[in-house]
Specification:
Layout lengths: L13 H21 L2 H32 L11
Helix pairs in contact: 1-2
Amino acid sequence: MGHPLSPDLSKLTTEELNNKYGDLLKRMTTAYRLGSSDMVYQLQMIMEDFQVEIQRRNQVALEELEKNSKQFKNIIDIQ
């Protein structure tokens, strides 16, 4: 479940996305130290949105790599 006030992360560059995620990690550390469980919960929801967007971008990049690379052809995919 995402945070209702999360911005549209698809509009951010990958560098901006990673920088903002790093800032959120710093804020999370501070919130844990202060013992603010409400703030921790809110930050977790926002960070989840960032993680989903990062995973989505990584998946797209992997699919492009597989599509454009002969190295990944005819590989046995064990799931």
